[in-house]
Amino acid sequence: MDKTRLLCLLVSFVYLHIMLPANLMAIDLMNLQGMNDWMSKLSDSDKLSLAVNYFQNGKYHEALLIFGKLNKKYKLNPRFLAYTGVCMYYDGDYENAAATFEKVIDKVSVFSPHELAVYYFCAAESKYHIGKFSEAIPLYERHLVMCYNNEKGDSLYSIGLCYKKLGKTEQAQEYLIQALAYYRKFNDKDKMRIVERHIEKDINE
Fold it and tell me: What's the pLDDT tens digit per position in 110-166?
């Protein structure tokens, strides 16, 4: 390889692997600083509106950061705390999500059934993920009462898994069979296969 070509390759390597990442990092830091400066100029009511907007658009981590700061300053009302619990659940912070829902779940009963269904499902899933299966079951059952029909399969399936974890195979089978019926009704083939494997495994054990 001639020296000119080698030099060109070396320059390209340095640009792609050293200079470009460094420049992008600098841009990210500038953007972050600019975002922080912009946020600092917002009123707290505007920050709350921004957090709600993030929440409604599925940007749960961003919403959580703002809700968390506002809650430390003001103590948010139960609905916004429920939003915070949902954000914690989607952020993978199941311990704090479960603790948050324990505090607020009984204080948001005035809202629409489907809104409550979201809270109960996230609360139940959080309990499941931290191994509190017996506490998760009644939350899934509340979700079943309030959710849309095409969502019932998920809670029935999860209740079945809870009973399996608790060593109650007969109850588990009962709920898994019900879940399978809903997945068939709404033609959710991927979930049908998963539940069918669970049922077949339990039969063969």
Answer: 999 999 999 999 999 999 999 999 999 999 999 999 999 999 999 999 999 999 999
Q: Assign 6 a pLDDT band (cuts: 50, 70, 90).
A: very low
Give one DSSP letter per residue of 61-112, joined into a string: HHHHHHHHHHHHHH---HHHHHHHHHHHHHTT-HHHHHHHHHHHGGG-TTS-
Give the SS3 label for residue 59.
coil
Handedness of CA 100, 106, 109, 110 (dihedral sign): negative
Is the Cα dihedral 78, 84, 90, 93 positive or negative? negative
- pTM for the model stands at 0.80
CA gap 45, 149 in Å, rounded: 37
Return the sign of the alpha-carbon dihedral for residues 126, 128, 134, 137.
positive
- Alpha carbons 41 and 176: distance in angstroms, whole number: 52
Question: Tokens 């979930």, residue?
Answer: 191
- Around Cβ 99, how many Cβ atoms within 10 Å? 14
Residues 6+ apart with CB under 8 A from 150: 182, 186
Rounded-to-integer distance, Cα 125 and Cα 121, Å: 6
In angstroms, the CA 86 to CA 91 distance is: 8
